[in-house]
Automatic annotation (TrEMBL):
Domain ABC transporter: 375-609
Coarse class of the protein's main subcellular location: membrane
Protein name per UniProt: ATP-binding cassette domain-containing protein
Membrane association type: Multi-pass membrane protein
Region of the whole protein represented: 32 to 655 of 818
Assigned GO CC terms: plasma membrane
């Protein structure tokens, strides 16, 4: 009978013969739906008499009230029940294993897909944001947004999404059932809701602000690390290690403090939610128990009437109320994960909200992909900061094929002026025209294909020499590449390396000297073969010998192109067609080397000063 009592109703044979007084009677409380195991073998009276004949059914009538309850179930049916239970158990555990697999697989799949989408979108957006915007950003912090913040979002989806969904669904489901059992008691159990709401909003607010602080600190950590790793030489030279360790340490500590704050709030929050929820249960048990026991109350404004409940309903209600615990506790545990992800989303959104400042013209471009290279500045005004122009109303016309030098004091705006040509920045008023057309009318791709830059520092990427040169002309055949390298005076050097063109270039090309890097950049520009060439002090960082080699390479590069060269070695400018002298954002003098030298203006005095300086240093003046 213990076994019977423990068994769910439907697994119990519906008719159990009573070996005592009346073999044919049945117990009404056992008359559930016909069981699978209710075999005729149980009751000899059910066996057919002869093959084909109809079974003789026993008269079914309830057992007398005082007849003994059968004390055992036949051997047959116990085995059946056990086997059936085992099969059901096995099926359930297999099913639940399958569900766990699907859950884990799906949450990882969703998290990974989401993070790929966000990461790619963010990176693409970063590439489109203006250089002006990038100038103002901290590199490490940006990297942290692309890596760390997205990882936080990924973590929430992987570890929390299913719990979150299951929790919310369970809450809704259980609450609906509770409402259907007893709306009054459901309301009663919600008595703690205002306090719960207060606690939830206070704590989630606190955890959220800690999570934000933590994300910001993570950005700063990445910042200092990036900056210092890029400046290791200087840090060692100035023995700044201790200072930098302290700077790094302070951010690491504030990251820890924010993490601890979030953690300790979370540690208080979860049990507090449990306590409040059980308080709700206490109220229900108290009121329900009191009323169900037959007591009444009348508080004047409220009487027992709406709360009358019988014990069965109360117990059923309490069972469901108890089911609210787990999802609430689970959900409260997700707060930290969710707030981390939310502050990650916020930091990513900040970047995505930045409008790309260089916007492509909507008009379709119908011109030739290769331009002639005529450059015109018309009353161009530009400044990095509003109302503080760096370029003040500059107008110049440079016919295609002309070689022009831009000279002047440092900070005069030379670099800024040439950066307007490929539209790295946009004129605030006036316009920069190429071949007579405003450079904003060209698709960026076309415009930038037609402008080559050789800057003070050549930028090389990780990869082979060949790959680095190929950037100039993707898919160029080897002969063309080596031809360009020959012109750039670097072919022989490359061939002297054990791996030749397959030599590996380290990050930023730091396994090559400045002169070698510069000549590789020149070879790249030769391959690119664009009609406009901008040289921004390409030899400024080189020693005399390397400078001579680079100049030699440059002389081959400039043939047949419009050239704008910025140079502070005035004595090397004899061959250019025209020199523009810039001061404080304006062109103050222009003319040929000879004209300007004769004119005794700013250029002549700069030249004189430089020659005096190099004479002092024991260098010879270049003879032109
Ligand atoms: P030059 O090349 O003639 O030495 P630049 O064009 O580099 O001069 O700089 C002109 C002025 O613009 C300087 O006063 C400099 O401080 C400022 N400047 C240059 N680049 C930026 C930038 N990215 N953001 C803000 N100001 C800048
Ligand atoms: Mg400059």
């Amino acid at each position: 009978s213990d076994l019977l009592a423990a068994m769910p109703l439907k697994f119990i044979p519906s008719k159990i013969s009573n070996p005592g007084a009346d073999p044919a009677c049945t117990f009404p409380f056992l008359n559930g739906p016909l069981s699978l195991f209710d075999t005729p073998a149980l009751d000899p009276s059910l066996r057919p008499i002869a093959p084909g004949a109809a079974p003789r059914l026993p008269p079914s009538h309830p057992c007398p009230a005082n007849s003994p309850i059968p004390s055992m179930v036949t051997h047959h049916s116990v085995t059946g029940v056990i086997i059936f239970s085992l099969i059901i158990l096995a099926i359930f555990s297999l099913l639940s294993a399958l569900l766990v697999y699907i859950e884990l697989f799906l949450s990882t799949f969703i998290a990974q897909s989401l993070s790929v989408t966000i990461r790619e979108q963010l990176f693409d957006h970063l590439q489109r944001l203006s250089l002006d915007w990038h100038d103002r950003q901290k590199k490490g912090d940006l990297v942290q947004r692309v890596t760390g913040n997205i990882a936080d979002i990924e973590k929430l989806v992987t570890d929390g999404l299913i719990d979150l969904m299951a929790g919310v669904l369970t809450l809704i489901g259980v609450a609906t059932i509770m409402l259907s059992i007893s709306p009054q008691y459901t309301l009663l159990s919600l008595a703690i809701a205002p306090v719960l709401f207060l606690v939830v909003s206070r704590y989630t607010g606190g955890i959220k602000s800690a999570a934000k602080k933590k994300a910001r600190a993570a950005g700063k950590i990445a910042d200092v690390a990036t900056e210092d790793i890029n400046a290791l030489t200087v840090i060692r030279a100035f023995t700044l290690e201790t200072r930098e360790n302290r700077r790094f340490g302070s951010h690491v500590e504030s990251h820890r403090d924010a993490g601890m704050r979030a953690g300790s709030l979370q540690a208080q929050f979860t049990p507090l939610v449990s306590v409040l929820v059980s308080l709700g249960t206490l109220i229900v048990v108290g009121v329900g128990g009191y009323v169900a026991a037959g007591n009444g109350f009348d508080l004047g404004f409220m009487s027992i009437a709406p709360f009358s409940i019988d014990v069965g309903t109360l117990i059923l209600f309490l069972t469901y109320l108890k089911m609210l615990y787990q999802p609430m506790r689970d959900l409260s545990k997700l707060t930290t994960l969710a707030t981390n992800a939310a502050s990650g989303v916020e930091r990513i959104q900040e970047v995505l909200d930045q409008a790309p400042e260089v916007i492509e013209s909507s008009k379709p471009y119908t011109g030739m992909p290769k331009l002639k290279g005529e450059i015109t500045f018309e009353n161009v005004v530009f400044g990095y900061i509003k109302n503080r122009p760096v370029i003040k109303n500059v107008s110049i016309h440079i016919p295609a094929g002309r070689k022009v030098a831009l000279v002047g004091f440092s900070g005069g705006g030379k670099t800024t002026l040439v950066k307007l040509i490929p539209r790295f920045y946009e004129a605030q008023s006036g316009s920069v025209k190429i071949d007579g057309l405003d450079n904003r009318q060209y698709p960026l791709q076309v415009l930038r294909q037609n402008v080559s830059l050789v800057l003070q520092e050549a930028v090389l990427f990780e990869g082979t020499i060949r790959e680095n040169l190929e950037i100039g002309k993707p898919g160029a055949p080897m002969e063309e590449i080596s031809d360009a390298a020959r012109k750039a005076n670097i072919h022989d050097f490359i061939m002297s390396l054990p791996d030749g063109y397959n030599t590996y270039v380290h990050e930023q090309g730091n396994n090559f000297s400045g002169g070698q890097r510069q000549r590789l950049a020149i070879a790249r520009a030769i391959l690119r073969d664009s009609p406009i060439l901008i040289l921004d002090e390409p030899t400024a960082n080189l020693d005399v010998e390397a400078e001579a080699e680079v100049m030699h390479a440059l002389n081959k590069l400039i043939v047949g192109r419009t050239v704008l060269t910025i140079s502070h070695r005035l004595s090397t400018l004899g061959q250019v067609d025209e020199i523009l002298v810039m001061r404080a954002g304006q062109i103050v003098e222009r003319g040929s080397y000879r004209d300007l030298k004769r004119k005794k203006g700013l250029f002549a005095s700069l030249l004189e000063e430089q020659n005096r300086y190099s004479a002092d240093m024991g260098e010879n003046e270049f003879e032109l």
